[in-house]
Amino acid sequence: TVYDELDVTESTVVCHKTVTIDCVAGVADGVGGWRAWGIDPGEFSHSLMRVSERVVRSGRFAPSEPAAIIARAYYELLENKTHILGSSTACVVVLQGDVGQLYSANIGDSGFLVLRNGSVVHRSQEQQHYFNTPFQLSLPPPGTNAQVLSDRPESADTLEFLVKEGDMLIVATDGVFDNLPDSMIIKEMVKVQGSTDLLLLQQAANSIAQQARKLAFDEDYMSPFARNARENGINAIGGKPDDITVVLATITV
C-alpha cells in the first residue's frame, strides 16, 4: 500500500498491516475554518489518525467494526486533559484478507472506491448536512459547543463488500474527489491494475495527487465540486483548492 501527500496541512494518513493479515487504511481531513480561531486545522486530524494507528497496532479492534477504531480514537482525544481542538472528517477501511471482505466507516466527505477490471464496483457515500458542509468530528473550545457543528463517531456510514484478487483500492480526501472525475482517477488506476510493485503504485498515487492539485487551481475548469455547486443553485466554476491525500493499494486475498 502506497500513499502520497501534497499540501497536506490538514490531512494525515496511516496504513498498517496486522499479524492477522488485516490491512487498515485511513485518512482524516481537518476543517480549515479553525484558522479563524487561531487553531491549526491539521492538529486534530493528525492526532485522530495517530491514535487510530495505535488502536490498530494494539489489535484492540474487530475487523468488521472500523467505526469503532474512529470512535476509540475520538473519545481518547475527548478525554485527554490537554484538549486538541478542531474538527475533521475521517474514513477508515479494513480488509480481512482471509475472507476477502472489505469493511468501511466514513464520516464526512473523504472516501474510497474499489476498481475491478477497469470499472468502479464499490464506493463510499458522502455524508453532508448540506452542500459543502460535511459531517465531522469536533473538539471545540470550552463554551463554544453550541456554535460548532459536531457529529458523533457512531454516525459514521458503514459498508461491507466482498473483494477479489487484483481489485484496486483508493482512499482519499475530498481534495481528490472534488477536483477529479471518476474517469480521471480510473485512468491512472488502470495503469497499475493488479500490480504489487510499490514503485509503480507510488507513481500512480503521485500522478493522481498531482493532477488533483493542478486542477484545484484552474479557474476555468468545470470540476466535480463546481458541478455539485451548480446542482445546489450556486453558479460556480473552477477547481477547489483543498488538502489532497491519496492511499492507493492492490488487494491480495
TrEMBL record:
Its EC number is 3.1.3.16. GO terms for molecular function: metal ion binding; protein serine/threonine phosphatase activity. PROSITE patterns: PPM_2. Its cofactor is Mg(2+); Mn(2+). It catalyses: O-phospho-L-seryl-[protein] + H2O = L-seryl-[protein] + phosphate; O-phospho-L-threonyl-[protein] + H2O = L-threonyl-[protein] + phosphate. Keywords: Hydrolase, Magnesium, Manganese, Metal-binding, Protein phosphatase. It is an enzyme of class 3 (hydrolase). It holds the Pfam family SpoIIE. Residues 7-251 form the PPM-type phosphatase domain. Transmembrane segments: none annotated. SMART domains: PP2C_SIG, PP2Cc. It comes from the Eukaryota. GO terms for cellular component: mitochondrion. Belongs to the PP2C family. This is Protein phosphatase. It comes from Homarus americanus (American lobster).
